[in-house]
Amino acid sequence: MSHASGGALRAGQPAGGRPMRVLTYTTLFPNAVQPVKGIFVENRLRHLVDETGIESRVVAPVPWFPSQAPMFGAWAKFAAVPGAEQRHGVEILHPRYPVVPKVGMNIAPALLYAGTVGLVRKIAKHWDFDLIDAHYFYPDGVAAAMISRDLGKPLVITARGSDVNVLPEFALPRAQIRWAAGRAAGLITVCQALKDRLIDLGAPAGKISVLRNGVDLDALRPMDREEARRRLGVEGRVLLSVGNLVELKGHHLIIESLKDFADVTLLIAGGGPERAALEKHAEVCGVAGRVRFLGQIPHDQLAWIYSAADALVLASSSEGWANVLLEAMACGTPVVATNVSGTVEVVTSPDAGLLIDDRSAAGITDGVRRLFSALPDRSATRRFAELFSWDETSRGQSDLFASILEGRAVR
After folding, report:
1. Are residues 202 and 239 in the same domain?
2. 209 shares its domain with 287
3. How does pLDDT run across 156-186, given as a tens digit for each residue?
4. Whole-model pTM?
């Protein structure tokens, strides 16, 4: 289902005057059971549909698992995902595909392709889409390239971070990513650093568009700080860390840095496999009483969490375009972030916060102290975030898709 109320389409819409039809293909997409998974992909798609009138349907595969029994943890959640649903007026299908834990990385694209190509063929028969828009290069983009080849549909792949920063360190994924990049009609990266990385991997520079993520300035806005802090039961200085509970995000380093602050509380929002280890780490560091694990926060509640904090700390070892940075700024909260990949393209003003080169507890301590010594006005931080609406990104996607379809029509 489309949001036909959006702005006028650009040149290149298919013959007959109907809106452009885009099939979004990704394993990173929210669902009824995992409502914040891949929310950044949904946000970009929602704004594209609303602002351009493009029609979209989503194929968001989930791993097959036979049981919803809670004893199976995350795997049970996969089993509970519905086969089809609608979110914000867009139809989403969740086909199943086989996954081989731990040892299946090299064959993941083939398994994803096998589990979804039949469904995509069926969609094409009754909803003749014009283009496949795939998110995350591996395995999603590679599987989408196989489907694109079979159906003769043009393909655009968006690189988002670890898919090109980390996975190409392995030989077979690297070769498959290069192959998919060569097959795609267009490539998108969410920051210049990822474009440079794709070029290093052999992707043609002329095929790559940099379209940074935006932020929903209506949903993420400054809330009443006293009310936000009352809701969370916090006083004094408050730091916030948001992200999956994995080593890459550096939550353990932020916890360790609390030893240097006697009066700072740390809120950690997110879920993941390392929660127990992080809780133990807080105990060992002697700061467990000042660390609060909030779990996964519904997207519509994030503004309250950001507004309660004095600063967001992002201590990642690798990032593409970290959405949490703009989310915090949109709520008036400045950031301290490690100087990696795309973060340098986000934190470009003292009003936004500052970057640290030393990814360590000591480096975080120094960065937080420097920020607290010259905190920007929260209204200035919000104004900085307002430079990053979704409008430019939606126009860029629409123009790219249209140019690809025009090129095919000319040939």
Report:
1. no
2. no
3. 999 988 888 788 788 898 999 999 999 999 9
4. 0.84
Beta carbons of 346 and 330 less than 8 angstroms apart: no
Name residue, tokens 């740390």. 266
**101, 138, 139, 157 from 171: Cα distances, Å:** 19, 13, 14, 20
Task: Please provide residue 70's backbone torsions phi and psi, each rounded to the nearest 5 degrees.
Answer: -55, -25
Q: pLDDT averaged over consecutive 10-residue blocks of the chain (411 residues)? A: 38 65 97 91 94 96 91 88 95 95 83 97 97 96 98 96 82 93 96 92 94 92 97 96 94 98 96 95 97 92 97 92 94 97 91 97 98 97 94 94 81 38
Gap between the Cα atoms of 339 and 211, Å rounded: 20
Tallying the residues shown for the chain, one arrives at: 411
Are both 272 and 402 inside the same structural domain?
A: no
- β-strand 84-87 against 90-93: which pairing, if any? antiparallel
CATH assignment of the domain containing 368: 3.40.50.2000
CA distances from 79 to 19, 111, 115, 242 (A): 35, 17, 15, 27
Same structural domain for residues 371 and 398?
A: no
The kind and range of the H/E element at 28 are none
What are the percentages of helix, strand and coil residues in the chain, rounded to 5?
A: 45, 15, 35
Mind listing the pLDDT tens digit for each residue in 299-310? 889 999 999 999
CB 376 within 8 A of CB 334: yes
Q: Which amino acid is at 96?
A: R
Domain identity same for 256 and 291: yes
Instruction: Judge whether 240 and 219 are in contact, CB under 8 Å.
Output: no
Token duo for residue 75: 């795997």
Range of the domain at 396: 21-214+389-406
Residues 76 and 189 both lie in one domain: yes
Residue 171 CB contacts under 8 Å (≥ 6 apart), including other chains:
none
Q: Distance of CA 328 to CAs 31, 73, 81, 161, 304, Å?
A: 24, 30, 30, 20, 10
**Residue 119 domain-assigned (yes or no):** yes
157 and 65 part of one domain: yes
Amino acid at 326: L
